[in-house]
Amino acid sequence: QVQLVESGGGLVQAGGSLRLSCAASGPTFRVYTVGWFRQAPGKEREFVVAITRSGGTTAYADSMKGRFTVSRDNAENTVYLQIDSLKPEDTAVYYCAARMSDIWDIVPRGTNSYPYWGQGTQVTVSS
Known about the structure:
By secondary structure, the chain is mostly beta strands. About 0% of the residues lie in helices and about 50% in strands. The protein contains no helices and eleven strands. It has strands at about 5, 10-15, 20-25, 30-40, 45-50, 60, 70-75, 80-85, 90-100, 115, 120-125. The protein is globular and about 45 Å long. The relative contact order is 0.32. The model has no long low-confidence stretch (mean pLDDT about 95).
């Protein structure tokens, strides 16, 4: 079982950047597909991006393409989410989630596909 801890959130002005980290425990992190989701106040949790176990394949929500960049360092058991040109509407709690990869390296976008979740990190963007 993997445990996830997000960090890197904070208060930033519009136009700024943040890099969020998702640190995982356990020696088998490299076999997990990892997704990033976010949840704004009063809204449902939404998919941002996911990355396969090797980092070779990524899948972004259409609305997240261009300003969001995911990467992973399996040697460090960490997945990163770089967010550039932040907007007030990016204000949300950002969560990372993980699932055991399958042989097809499917990259699901639904919250129900990820059994392991971190506690989230707050990102607040001021205008």
